[in-house]
């Protein structure tokens, strides 16, 4: 994968598969500290100690359609190869937290990429899941809580064209305003 | 910058006209594989393009969704079209361009694009051997 936003989309699929009803995704970029941190937290089924130990192993997977599980190893490698950190914590019945820290200026740090497409697809394709998304660049912060969208929209679904387009434009403009032309 | 107030206006406009779409047996489902294998091979822009095209062309009887690993990792991105009372059609090695062709030919004109299906792709691979 060549964009961190693709890893995020991939890791969130694990939360969805673990039947999470609430998922928070936070991206925090601090250029003075030279760090880009991602935290993905869900309230899904969680993992046992035993599972948690194996989950960073590429030859471990819960699926039955193939024998390797590369999602977490890819994400971990992407972070570690910049000199950053990676950690997962989880409790059965409570949920899982995945943390990845990238050294922002490292030559091997992949670009964040199209995070708007990742978030737009997650929100519009999984209306029954509550998403809390936060994007922070230095001192500027943008957050979108799908509870607020639901409250305004009532029973109008997110995937009707007008609403879906609004969500996409809202995400795009908010990121552009915070990024002020810098390429993250 | 956009604010959520704009969403309130959209809701006001729509409230009267929204008929909730019935997700029943008359719906055609378009399913994109979005496991690690799919995402790494380019499934995200394909899912986005399909969802947008179906909206734009007002194909109310089509639902675009995502699924996990279908077990055809070497053929990702994979897109399945499941029409009511018909056999599922599995498209492999998809791109955004091919997906849009599938929208026009398969979903609108009801002519599956045989050359992109798993059957056609594995046949031609077998012939090359």
Describe it for me?
The complex is a heterodimer of chains A (184) and B (129). With 184 residues, chain A is of the alpha+beta class. Chain A has helices at 4-17, 49-54, 71-80, 115-125, 146-153, 161-179; strands spanning 22-30, 35-42, 85-91, 95-103, 130-137, 140-145. Chain B has a four-stranded mixed sheet. In chain B, a hairpin with a 6-residue loop joins strand 3 and strand 4 (89-91). Chain B has a single domain (20-128), classed as Glutaredoxin, CATH 3.40.30. In chain B, helix 3 (43-56) packs parallel to helix 4. The model of chain B has no long low-confidence stretch (mean pLDDT 90). The interface between A and B is large, with 40 and 35 residues.
Instruction: Supply the CATH class of chain B.
Output: Alpha Beta
Q: What is the rounded Rg of chain B?
A: 17 Å
Biggest sheet details of chain B: 4 strands, mixed
Q: Specify which chain pair forms the largest interface.
A: A-B, 40 and 35 residues
Q: Judging by the overall fold, what is the CATH architecture of chain B?
A: 3-Layer(aba) Sandwich
Strand content of chain B: 5-15%
Instruction: Going across the biggest sheet of chain A, name each strand in turn.
Output: 3-4-2-1-5-6
List low-pLDDT spans of chain A.
none
**What's the helix-strand series of chain B?**
HEHHEEEHH
Summarize the structure.
The complex is a heterodimer of chains A (184) and B (129). By secondary structure, chain A is an alpha+beta fold.
Task: Give the arrangement of secondary structure elements.
The complex is a heterodimer of chains A (184) and B (129).
Chain A lengths: L3 H14 L4 E9 L4 E8 L6 H6 L16 H10 L4 E7 L3 E9 L11 H11 L4 E8 L2 E6 H8 L7 H19 L5
Parallel strand pairs in A: 1-5
Antiparallel strand pairs in A: 1-2, 2-4, 3-4, 5-6
Helix pairs in contact in A: 1-3, 1-4, 4-6
Chain B lengths: L3 H11 L13 E6 L2 H6 L1 H14 L5 E6 L11 E4 L6 E3 L4 H13 L9 H11 L1
Parallel strand pairs in B: 1-2
Antiparallel strand pairs in B: 1-3, 3-4
Helix pairs in contact in B: 3-4
